[in-house]
Amino acid sequence: MVETKRKGRDEPKHNKMKKQKSSGSKTLSTKKKSKRNDARKGPRLPNSLRKEVERLNPSTQLNSEDEDINSDEGEFLTDDIYEYEEKIPQEESRKNRRFDPVENFEYELPEDFEDENVPSDDDEDEDDDLMDNGGNKLEDSHDEIEEDDDGRHVRMLEGITGMPSEAFEGNKKKNNVVISEAYPESEYNPTRDVLDGGGRISMEDLLGTLQKKPGFGKLRKIMDQMKKSEAIEAPLPTVIREKMERQAAYKISKKDMAKWEPLVKRNREAPTIYFDEDTDLGFSTVGAIASEFEPRTEFEKKMASLVYDDDVMEAHKKDGSRLLELNQVSMEDEKERHNRIAKMRSLLFRHEMKAKHIKKIKSKTYHRLLKKDRLKTAAALTEMDPEAAKEQAMKQEFKRAEERMTLKHKNTSKWATRILQRGLQVQDEGTRAAITEQLQQHALLTRKMNSMKDGSSSSSSSDDTSDEDDVDEDSSVLKEGRASKLLGKATEKTLKILEEEEDEVPDSGIFSLPFMERGLKKRKEAAEDEAKLALQEYEVSMKQLDDPSGAENSKIKASSGRRVFGAANIRAPESRDVIKTDNFYANSDSDDDLEAKENIFDMGKDGSCDMQKDVHVDSVLPHEFPQDSVFKSFDDIVRDPGPKTTYDVAIFASDKWRKMESRNKVDANSKKSPVAVEPEYNQDLQEPVKEVGENSDTESEGQMVDGIISLDPKPTYELPSQTELIRQAFAGDDVEEDFENDKQEILNEENPEPEKPVLLPGWGQWTRVQKKKGLPSWMLKEHENAKRKREEALKKRKDAHLKHVIISEKLDKKAEKLLTKTLPYPFTSKEVFEQSIRMPIGPEFNPATAVGALNRPAVVKKPGVIIKPIEFKEVNPHENKEGHKWSGQKQKTKKSKSDGSMPRKKMKKAEGKTKKVN
Amino acid sequence: MSVKATKEEKEKETEEEKLPEDLDLKVKKYLRGGAANFDDLKDKKLKGQLSHREFLYGASAKAAAKYEKWLMPSEGGYLEADGPVEKTWRIKQEDIRREVDISSSRNQHDVILPEFSPYTLDFTSNGQYMAAAGRKGHLAIVDVKNMIPRREIQVGETVRDVVFLQDQSFFAAAQKKYTYIYGQEGIEAHCLKDQGAVLKLQFLKNHFLLASINKFGQLHYEDVSMGAMIGNIRTGLGRTDVMQVNPYNAVVALGHSGGTVTMWKPTSSAPLVKMLCHHGPVSALAFHPNGRLMATAGKERKIKLWDLRKFEVLQTLPGHAKTLDFSQKGLLACGTGSFVQVLSDFSGTQNYSRYMNHSMVKGYKISNLLFRPYEDVLGIGHSMGWSSILIPGSGEPNFDSWVANPFETRKQRGEKEVHLLLDKLPPETIMLDPTKIGTVKTARKKEKSTKKEIEAEMEATVEAVKEGINMKKKTKGRSKPSKKLKKRQEIIAKAKRPFLEQQMHDGQLTIKKQKISEEVALPKSLQRFARKKAAT
Questions:
Q1: Could you tell me if B340 and B241 lie in one domain?
Q2: Which of A235-249, A611-625, B264-278 has the lowest mean pLDDT?
Q3: Is this complex's ipTM strictly greater than 0.85?
Q4: With a CB-CB cutoff of 8 Å, which residues 490-519 of chain B face chain A?
Q5: Structurally, how many domains does chain B consist of?
Q6: Are B216 and A654 in contact (CB under 8 A)?
Q7: Are residues B221 and B294 in the same domain?
Q8: Which of A633, A646, A758 to mutate to test the interface with B (most CBs of B within 10 A)?
Q9: What residue numbers bound the domain in which B502 lies?
Q10: How far is Cα B329 from Cα B377, in angstroms, rounded to an integer?
Q11: B125 and B273 co-located in one domain
C-alpha cells in the first residue's frame, strides 16, 4: 500500500485542508493563494484522484508557518510531473462573468472563531490511519506522535522568537523507521531517507543508483573532493566563462580534427594523387549518344514518328521487299521530276558554259567595260530604286558608324602608334605614305554623307581615274607609242638626275673631308656611268622600236648595240653572270634562263669573230676574279695581324707565300690585260692559277687541262715544299717561353698587375730627407695590398698549378642563360640542387618502364571526373608507406661501405614500385 | 582520391633477393653519380620529394642495368695472344682474313686510285657510308656495307677535306677556294664563300654546325640548318690543318705550329683552353669518344695522351704520327709514312700499349686514318687510294638506333633527320663541361660593378646620409636656414665623393689600357721603328 509510506507529519496538512474546506475560513490573502492554486498546470483531475496524487508527492517543505499556504505550495511544487496545461474551465476562470458571481458556497465561520481542537482531530485521524495500517506498526505511530509533539514545540518556538522553523530543527533526530517498500526506488518513488533528509535529494542518493556502473569510483572521488571544498565559488563573469567554454570546445574539436591528420599527411606526402580513376565516364561515341536521343520539338517528333513508323521498322526487320512497296512512286511523278531535273541541268550547263566563256575573255577593255556597266547599273539602281538606294545608304552609314566607333584607321593600331611614337619624320617614304593613306581612308569613311549622290560620285570619280590609267596601260594599239613615251620619260628623268647630281656638292661638314669627297666622287662617277648606260640603252630600244624588223634581227642588233658601249670590263661580268646562272640552274627549266641561254647562243652565232673570243675570255674570267679577291683578303689579313700576340712563324711563312703569289698575280694580270687574245690564252691563264694552287696547297698537283687533271701515274717521293720547310724549321722555336709569356699576358689581362707607385717628379722631393725616405708608406701599403689581391686571384684560377695550360676564365654571356641565377625555391644547398638535376628523365635515357613514373604529374585525373571532397578513412599513421624514406642518403652511405646488401634491398622495393607503375 | 597502393612490392622482393653482383656496377653507372646527402636538409617536404625522386632514379637505373643484357647483347672481341711468346702485333691481316667470315673479310681491301690521291676519308655516324676525297678533285660516296660506289664526282680542283653532314644525304668538301656542300647525288647545293680556302672541316652533329679552319687560321662555324655564320674566330695562331671535335662536348680543338692545342667554342673569341702539348708543331690530334682522353702527336716524335679533366699528361709514347684516331671502343690508331700502329688499353687503365701493326706497301704515304663506326674496320687514306683493314675490337658491337643505326632504312633516315633537327642544340651549349648546364651560376667575384649599380649604391648612401642629418641648434646665427642648407649640401657631397672618385679612376684606367693595346698592336717587324718611350 502506498499509504504505508505516509508519515505522520503530513497528516496535519491533510487534516487542515479538510478542515479548511469544512470551515471555509478564507481571508483576502488566502483568496489570492487559492487563485494561484487555480492557475496550476495539468489536467483537471477528479478530486479523489488529486488527493491521491497529493499524497504520493508529499511536500518537501517543512515550512508550515502558514499552513494553508504551505499545503498549497506543496501541491504546486509536486505537480511538475504534468507537462501540459489545461485551460481553466470557464466557470472557474470567471472570465466574462457569464456565471453568477458567487463569492463563497460554503458556510463561513465568523472572524473571531479560533480552531483549538485541531490536534485532537489529528489524533483521531491518526488513530484511524493506524488502525488502517494494521497493528504491526504501533511503535512507529508512537514515534510519530512524539514527533508531532516536536513539531508543536517548534511552532511554539517560532511563535515566540519569530524565527523560521528551520532554526530549531537542528536538534531533531532522524527517525529510524523501517518501512518495507512495495515498489522499486525511482524518482516517482523516492527512498525513505530521501524523504527523510529534509526532503532533498542528495548526491549520495543519486550516486547510489550508479554504484555498480563503471567509473563509479572516479565519480565518488570527485564527489569527495567537492565535499571537501565546501565553499562554492561565485559564478565567473560571462566573458571569461564563454572564453573557457570556447577553449574547451576548441580542445574537443581539435581532437576531432586530429583524426584527419594521417589521412592528410599521406596525401601530402604522396608523389602523385589519383582522383577517381575507376569512375566510368561512359561511352562518348556518336552511336551511344544518338541512342539516347529523345525527340522533343515538334519537328523532331514528326521525324521520329516517320522513322520509327511501325511499318517501316517491320520492313527493316524483315527483308527489303516491303520497303520497296512502301517506296512506290507514281509514274507521272517520276517523269515530271525527271523532266525538271533535266531542264535544270541544261540550264546549269549553259550557265556554266557562259561563265567559262566570260572568264576566258582576256580583254581588259572588256572587263573594264563590264565593271563600268556593273557600276552603272548599280548607280542606276540607286537612282531608280529608292529601296536599293536606301540600302546603299544604310550600308554606307553602317560603315561610317563602324569606323567612328572603332577608329580602325585613325592611327590607333599598334603599328601606327609605334610609328608615331618614334616620330613620323624618322620614317621612310613608304611608311609615311602608308600612314597618310590610312588617315585618308579614315576621313573618307567618316565623312558625313549629305546625300547618296555624293558618295557614289566620289567613288565613281576615283574609278574613272583608275580607268584612265587602265586605258593608258592597256591600249594595245598604242603600245609602241606608249613605249616610246615611257622611254622618253625615263631619259628625261635620268638627265634631270644627272644634272642634279652635278649641282649638289657639299662644302662643309664631314662630306667636305678629302676622303669623303673622294668617295663621293667615286660613287657619283659610278652613278653617272650607270645613268649613261641606261640612257644608251633607252636610245637603243627607241631605235629598235622605230624600225619594225624581225625578232632575230633585233636580237642581233641588241648584241651589236651592246658592243657600242664597248667597255669590256662592264660587259664581262654581265655575261659571266649569265653563264653562271646557266650552270647553276642547268636543270631548272624556267623560261628566263632558257631565254638567257638563247641570247648567248645568238650572240655566239651572229656576233663577229672577236665577239666569240670575248665570250671565251669571259668564261675563263670567273676563275680569275675571285682569285683577286682572295688575294686582297689575304693582304688585309697580313696587314693587321692577330690580336696582340705576334707569331713570327706563321706570319713569316705566310709572307713568303704572299710574295710568291703576288708575283703570280702580276703574271696573271699582265697576261690578262690584252683582252682580245686567241683561245689558247685560256690555257695560259689556267696555268698560273694552277701554280697558285700549288703554292698555297704546298703539294704538287697534276696538270689540269680544262678541269680534268692530267696525271702522272708514278707516285714519287718529293721534297716538302719551301713553305712547308720553313714552317717546320721555325716551328719549335722556344715555344715554352712563348707560351709562358702568353699566359702571363692573359693573366695580366684578367687580373691586371697593380701599378707601381710613382711620384710626380718634383713632388715631395724638396729635401734630401724626403728623397731618402722614398715613397710614402700608404702608397707602398696600397701597392702591396693590390699585389696580394692579385696573387690570391691568380691562385684561385683553375690553371694555377698547370704551367702548360691556360684555361679561360672569361664569362660567356651567351651561355649565361643556360645557368640559373639563383637556387630554385625549396632548395637551400647548391650541391643538393645540382645533384637533383643530374638525371635525365626523358624516354631516351630511361627504360620505358621507368619513364612513366619519372614524369608522372602530381595529380592524375581524368577529364570529366568530379573531384569529391576528402572522405574519412582509417589510416595507420605509423605505417611507412613509401618504404624508402631517406633511402637516397642511406644508399649512399651503404655503398661507400661497399656493403651491398642494404642497397639491394632498396632496389627490390624499387623494382616492385616500377612494376606497379606499369 | 586514392594513393596507389603497392601490392606487388612484397612479392617482388623475394624474387629480387638474388641479384648478380655485376649488376651493381651497371646500376651505379646509370645512377650518374648518386644522390647528394640529404642530412643537411632542413626542409622536410623537400627531403621527402627528393628521396622519392632518388627512389625513382634508382628504379630506373636498376631497370636500365637489367635491360642492358637485352639491349647490349654482344661484347666486343679482341685479339688475344696465346702465350707470352705470341704477340698480338705480330698477327698480320692475312692471318685475320683466314679466321673471319666472308662478309668481314670483304672489309679488307685496297682501292688503288693513284691519279687523284692522296685521299681523305669520312664515315657517316652509322658507318654505312664513306666519303673519300682525292686531293686532285675526286669525290666519292661509297656504300661501304655493300661495297657499292654510290656517287662519284670530279670537281676539277683541289679537295682538301670532305665531311659528311648529319647523314649521307649531304657532304661538305673543302675545295681550293671555297667549301661546297653537295647533295646525295653529287649535286652542288651550297658554296660557302665566306669561309675562305678551308683546310679542314668538322661537323658538330648535335649542333648542326660545320666547323672549318681556313688557310689564315680563321675558325668558322656555319649553321648548316639555317645557313647562318655562327662564329668567326681568328685564332691568331697561324695556319693549321689539325682540327678535331671532341665528341663529348663539341669543343673544337686545333693543333698549332707552336706546339699548342687550343679548344674553341663558337660563342667566345678567346680559346677555352690553350695548352702547350709539344715542343714541336702538333701534327695530329684525336679525342676518345668519352671525351676525357686526348691524344696529340708532335713533330718532335712524341705522342702524348692527355687527361682532359685535369689537363695532365697520362702517357707519353715515342713515335711520330701524321694522323691519329680513336675508335669507338677506345683503340688509338697512329699512322706515319706507310705504317699503321694501333694501341689499346683493354685493361682499362688508360695505359696504352701496342696492339696491332700494319704496314702498307712501301712508298704509300698515309694521309688519313679513320675507324669505321660499329665495325672493326680501320679506313686508311693514303697516297695511292684508300684501304681498309680489320682491327678486332675497335668498333662498338651494340648500336643504339636512337643514336646511329647501321642498318638504317630510307624512312628511318628521314625520320632521324627530322628528330635531329628538332633536337638541335643551340651553339651556346658548347662548353667544356656540358653537365654544368642548368646549374647555378657561380658567383663571380665582382671587381667592377656596373655603372648602374654604382649609381644605385651612391643613391642609397646619399639617402642614408640625408636621413641621418640632424643639426644642432646653434646660436649666433649659425642655425640660419641658409647655413643649415649649406651644411646639408656639404654632407651630401662628402658622401658622394668616393663614388665619383672611383668613376674617374676607372675612366683613366680604360684610357690607359687602350694606349697599351695600341702599342702592342704594332707588328713585330715594325716595332723597331716605333718611337722609343721616354724613360720615366
A1: yes
A2: A611-625
A3: no
A4: 517
A5: 3
A6: yes
A7: yes
A8: A646
A9: 451-508
A10: 12
A11: yes
